[in-house]
Write a structure and sequence with these properties.
Elements (H helix, E strand, L loop, with lengths): L3 E3 L13 H10 L2 E6 L4 H13 L4 E5 L13 H8 L5 E10 L7 H18 L3 E6 L2 H13 L12 E3 L6 H8 L4 E4 L9 H9 L5 E3 L21 H12 L3 H16 L2
Parallel strand pairs: 1-2, 2-3, 3-4, 4-5, 5-6, 6-7, 7-8
Length: 265
Amino acid sequence: MIQLTDTHCHLDFDVYDEDLHQAVLRARDSGIELIINPGIDIPSSRKAVDLSNQYPGLVFAAMGFHPNYANLWNEKSLEDLRTLAKDNKVKAIGEIGLDYYREHAAHETQKNVFQAQLDLARELELPLLIHNRDADEDLIPILSHWYHNLPANSRLVRNPGVLHSFSSGLEVAELFINMNFVIGITGPVTFKNAAQRKDIVAKLPLESLLLETDSPYLTPQPYRGRRNEPANIIYIAWEIANLHSCSVEHVARVTTANARELFAV
């Protein structure tokens, strides 16, 4: 069976309350052998850790404050994250970053919360799951400064993290790839009106790509408009295989190796 990964999905969201176990079984039966479930605040980060313990060896956790929830950050948040990280199934800090599209929190608040979590990732040597929406101008210098000031012996120098659901341009992708970041590819690459996104993915090396569903969002063709789930990762793999003129087995093999290296699984 083909071996796949879904390196970003939110199975802790309440839209899975009725059929969570069935969704996990469908993922496993479709060939998925590794799932990363990130948090967006403290309660969801705790749920992510709980899920990783409920499905050991398949589901792993990330923890963090999504920029849209940056206003919830308080004096306890950093210590709460540090405590959660004691579970060895926590494999990353995320979903963190900047979102200037929805702007649920002021830019300065987002940047302060982002920086605090970047410092924690450096301390714990956990890679980053980066959310970036319309924030290249601020995100690039912040992440570049963080990366170039890592200790020379840190594992993050080789595996700093992933740009989740990448939607910026080719030059931005290449800039981050040159810093050893990988690029997360989600369902929109399968959309018929996504010519620019397809062109970018076709030009990026497979060794720098990860497969992500971002479930329950960003459902790929042919199920666009419905709730997404990890089993749909195969449609993203097929699209990448088509863009790279290779087999879906090759895409699965390379991206799974990328995921296992990044998350040390």
